[in-house]
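I would like you to sit down with the pair of lines that follows and say whether tokens and residues agree.
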Amino acid sequence: EIQISEEDPVLERLALAVALELAEPLLLFKSKSEYVDPIKRYEHYEQAYLAGELDPMFSQFTVWELRNAINSNAPDDELTWGRESLRNYRPDIVISDNPQWRYCQIVRTDVAYKTPDWYTSPHSHDQILSGGGKCGPRAWYGRFSCKTFGIPTWGCRQPGHAAMTRWTSQGWMTCLGGGFHKSYWEGQGGLDF
């Protein structure tokens, strides 16, 4: 049973976001039979938030924004690894004053644009960082990097391309591709988003 602190309203919104977003099971990254556990996902983000590991804006997000922050298909331990490794390896990206590229700049600097080298199974996000990838894996890693810090993202496809969008303090922005007018995802056009 989840105990929610009445002193911090973001935790109530987080619980609602997890319940709504994960009411339909979400397969883990590259898995055919393992799913994100909603209770553990709530606890993961609650603990990260209370430990001060998430973006400072996390506490201000609406339920809808939180749904787009917690819906990563990465296992919780991989989300923790993503936060810790980025803070240790590229702290400059974590504290960047560029809201569009904070957290996901690592794709542009450290994820080689090449055929991915999946060296073990099941596949994991750390393999993208070390083994590279073309537009799809790079967009996956960019979304992963943002979500590890509790930043909402919206996957997007573009003609012949995969990209990503993310929340910023200046509004939603596209990364790794064209603008919203070229984007779509799960039957929704970017300008409708």
User: Anything to note?
Assistant: The beta strands are 153-158, 161-166, 173-175, 184-185, 188-189. The mean pLDDT is 92. The longest strand covers residues 153-158. The longest helix spans residues 76-89.
